[in-house]
């Protein structure tokens, strides 16, 4: 008889932590609920024993935006300071997303037109950052991860964004990997390296793939509706 075991990260609500009512900086109406990622020992893919805590963060119950726990302090600042913090967080998010997305697209030495369109579509959502993101895109497209530039953007994002947001960045970036219908071992290893660069255990790869599948399903549904 084979015994299949391993570890994986699961998200939980911190029940004894107060909810920050109507405090979401993104939608201004949602409540921020304290969440945590905990590593679990799994037996036959079933979580059985809770292990260490990976990260705590706040998640909006309305728009699903995620923030690291420093949001509690940020919310005590003036509105202009909150706006500036959000602006900087958005900048780090966009830079990390375009850098990792472009790197994933070129990792197999076959930069497909479909992959480029995915990247251009994402860049169009940040019109105010067009010049900065275009420069990052061109640099990574030509030089890849030379001088660890992609990992550096992920590390910068790690300093301000929550683990949930970092995983969402990688899940969104990894959409380009599905252009050929599958994720190769080399691409899987790359995503695990990204997780480590974000300060997350490589076991979170399963969580990343689950989010990737959800995003892919949502995109397919949107295409069918249009």
TrEMBL record:
Pfam families in the cross-refs: TerB, Zn_ribbon_15
The Zinc-ribbon domain, residue ranges: 24-80
Residue ranges annotated for the Co-chaperone DjlA N-terminal domain, each copy included: 95-202
CDD domains: terB_like
InterPro entries per UniProt: DjlA_N, TerB-like, Zinc_ribbon_15
Protein name stated in the entry: Zinc-ribbon domain-containing protein
Organism this protein belongs to: Aquimarina addita
């Amino acid at each position: 008889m084979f015994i299949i075991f391993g570890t994986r990260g699961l998200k939980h609500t911190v029940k004894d932590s107060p909810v920050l009512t109507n405090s979401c900086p993104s939608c201004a109406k949602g409540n921020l609920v304290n969440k945590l990622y905990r590593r679990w020992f799994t037996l036959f893919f079933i979580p059985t024993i809770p292990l260490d805590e990976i990260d705590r963060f706040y998640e909006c119950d309305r728009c699903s935006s995620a923030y690291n726990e420093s949001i509690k302090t940020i919310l005590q600042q003036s509105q202009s300071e909150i706006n500036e913090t959000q602006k900087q967080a958005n900048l780090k998010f966009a830079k990390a997303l375009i850098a990792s997305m472009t790197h994933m697209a070129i990792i197999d030495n076959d930069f497909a037109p479909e992959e480029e369109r995915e990247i251009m579509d994402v860049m169009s959502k940040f019109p105010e950052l067009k010049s900065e993101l275009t420069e990052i895109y061109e640099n990574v497209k030509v030089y890849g991860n030379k001088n660890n530039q992609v990992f550096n953007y992920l590390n910068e994002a790690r300093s301000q964004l929550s683990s949930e947001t970092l995983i969402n960045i990688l899940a969104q970036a990894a959409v380009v990997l599905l252009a050929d219908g599958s994720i190769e071992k080399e691409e899987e290893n790359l995503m695990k390296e990204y997780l480590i660069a974000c300060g997350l255990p490589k076991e979170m790869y399963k969580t990343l793939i689950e989010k990737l599948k959800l995003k892919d399903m949502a995109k397919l549904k949107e295409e069918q509706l249009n």
